[in-house]
Specification:
Layout lengths: L12 E5 L4 E5 L48 E4 L20 H6 L7 E7 L13 H23 L6 E8 L11 E7 L4 H17 L3 H12 L3 E4 L3 E4 L10 E5 L11 H22 L5 E6 L7 H6 L3 E5 L15 H4 L3 E2 L3 H9 L12
Parallel strand pairs: 2-12
Antiparallel strand pairs: 1-2, 3-4, 4-6, 5-6, 5-10, 7-8, 8-9, 9-11, 10-11
Helix pairs in contact: 2-5
């Protein structure tokens, strides 16, 4: 039996994720192992400002034959290939008599609408390469879309939750490199968000305060996982992070949804997103891939949803050791529980020490 003191940077342990009521296995000693597996291709920065073959560049025709207008700033249009649609028949389960089947094979009809959000007319830009004022335009567009869809809900469309997200880079399944994100608006609250609301509600009941309020206070007190902060937001590598350089942007005070931001808060969000993604690119001097998404208050919220909603953004980037080595969730992660090799504190320190103002391409 060893008498040595436990070392969080070298000894395996599990960390609890209170947002999803789950655990992650942390194995920091595994970061020392050699890598002979798959390596990604490093993206080349010589991308044209306009691509005649890009469906999202201003003035070009899309795959459906529709034309993208000659837009000059952030532009939103309905997705030509939506994951959900407003017009579809309801599911008829009245003829199903098998009780076991009804218990095990549950199904729900889902209706909604999907949108593409072109961040910039310039094909060769990514978020960290855009100006803060341009990113304020993106935040304003998110706000405008939320307000528009909420008004459509009041007029009869069955909208409940707007999931705004971005998949950046081919490593995250992005099929078009033009700077863009998406927004899927469903008539239900998606599972990940619903689980967060359940966790927030349980924490509020058990402790008399919001989970994210305690989380922000604790992170600002300890500082070791804080990557960035400004007047409105903090960026941390969550204590329970799964992805190597996963981060979360959280408003310091409870702001339910993006439509509740004022002009100053809009600029604070745009600024901290640019700073974070600049750090990402500077980490391995590559256009850093990630999936990013906003969690916020649903439309027409219940009283509990009003109390539990707290604006935050998740960033899930896959790169592990370099621009060419990515993290895979396979094997034990699929069959047991998620696992990571780098502690949250180690990842935060590396990100914190990177330049957040000057992009690596500006130094070339």
């Amino acid at each position: 039996m060893t008498t040595a003191k436990f070392d969080y940077t070298d000894n395996s342990h599990r960390r609890y994720n209170p947002l999803t009521d789950s655990w992650v296995l942390v194995s920091p000693h595994r970061a020392k192992r050699p890598w002979l597996g798959q390596q990604e291709t490093v993206g080349k920065p010589n991308i044209p400002e306009y691509d005649v073959n890009c469906y999202l560049c201003p003035g070009n025709k899309r795959a459906t034959g529709n034309s993208t207008p000659a837009y000059e700033s952030t532009y939103i249009f309905q997705n030509d290939y939506p994951a959900v649609k407003l017009e579809q028949p309801d599911i008829d389960e009245t003829d199903e008599t098998d009780e076991i089947k009804k218990r095990l094979f549950k199904v729900q009809s889902v209706k909604g609408n999907c949108f593409v959000i072109c961040f910039s007319p310039k094909h060769n830009l990514t978020i960290p390469q855009m100006k803060v004022d341009e990113l304020v335009g993106v935040v304003n567009a998110w706000q405008s879309l939320y307000n528009t869809l909420d008004q459509e809900r009041k007029e009869g469309n069955p909208y409940k939750f707007l999931q705004i997200f971005e998949n950046k880079g081919t490593a995250m399944g992005c099929s078009n490199l033009h700077p863009h994100g998406q927004a899927w608006c469903l008539d239900v609250v998606p599972s990940e968000v619903s689980q967060e609301f359940k966790s927030f509600g349980k924490y509020q009941k058990d402790n008399g305060c919001h989970l994210l309020s305690d989380y922000v206070q604790l992170e600002l007190k300890e500082k070791v996982r804080v990557v960035l902060e400004n007047d409105t937001f903090i960026v941390t590598v969550p204590y329970w992070a799964v992805w190597p350089f996963e981060t979360i942007i959280v408003s310091k005070e409870r702001i339910p949804a993006i439509v509740d931001f004022n002009e100053k808060q809009n600029k604070d969000l745009a600024t901290i997103i640019k700073q974070l993604t600049t750090k990402y690119d500077n980490l391995f001097q590559t256009s850093f891939p990630y999936s990013m998404g906003i969690h916020q208050q649903p439309f027409n919220p219940t009283n509990e949803e009003k109390e539990m909603s707290w604006f935050h953004m998740h960033f899930y980037p896959p790169l592990l050791r370099s621009a060419t080595v990515r993290k895979f969730l396979v094997g034990f992660e699929m069959l047991g529980e998620p696992q990571r090799d780098l502690t949250a504190e180690q990842a935060a320190e590396r990100l914190r020490n990177l330049d957040s103002e000057v992009h690596y391409l500006e130094k070339l």
